[in-house]
TrEMBL record:
Organism: Thermobifida fusca TM51
Name of the featured protein: DUF1330 domain-containing protein
Lineage top rank: taxon: Bacteria
DUF1330 domain residues: 35-109
Pfam families: DUF1330 (PF07045)
C-alpha cells in the first residue's frame, strides 16, 4: 500500500497548483507497533513544519466510521496547513526532513495525503 509520495506524485501536485495555501488531510493506518515510530516522527517534524510556515491544525485518533465502506476506517487523522504547495515541496526535499522520513515510513502500513484548498468565503 502507498505510504510516501513518488517524484511523479510531487510533480503532478505542483502542476495542479491553483496557488495559495493548502490544508493537507492525512489519513493514517499504523503498522503493528507503528504508533511509537510515528510519535517520534511528529516530535521531530514540528520544527521543520515551522521552518516552512506550516502548522498542525488538528491531530486525532480515528473512531468507528459513521458512514464508510468496508476498509475505510483510519487509525489517525491529521490536518496540516501549508502556505503553498511550493512550501510543502521545499519541506519534503529538505535534507533535515529526509533524515526523519524513515520514522513515518516505518510507522505506517497505509496513508492518504489529500491536498485541499479552502473554499472562498462570502461576507454577509
Amino acid at each position: 500500500m502507498a505510504v510516501d509520495p513518488t517524484r511523479a506524485d510531487l510533480a503532478r501536485f505542483l502542476d495542479e497548483d491553483p496557488g495559495g495555501p493548502i490544508v493537507m488531510l492525512n489519513l493514517l493506518r499504523f503498522a503493528p507497533e507503528g504508533r511509537a515510530s510515528y510519535a517520534e516522527y511528529t516530535r521531530r517534524a514540528r520544527q521543520i513544519l515551522h521552518k516552512y510556515g506550516a502548522e498542525l491544525v488538528y491531530a486525532g485518533d480515528g473512531a468507528t466510521p459513521l458512514v464508510a465502506e468496508e476498509g475505510q476506517a483510519w487509525d489517525a487523522v491529521l490536518l496540516v496547513r501549508y502556505p503553498s504547495r511550493e512550501a510543502f515541496i521545499r519541506m519534503v526535499e529538505d535534507p533535515e526532513y529526509q533524515q526523519i522520513t524513515e520514522f513515518r515510513t516505518q510507522a505506517l502500513s497505509e496513508a492518504v495525503l489529500q491536498p485541499t484548498t479552502p473554499w472562498p468565503t462570502r461576507s454577509a
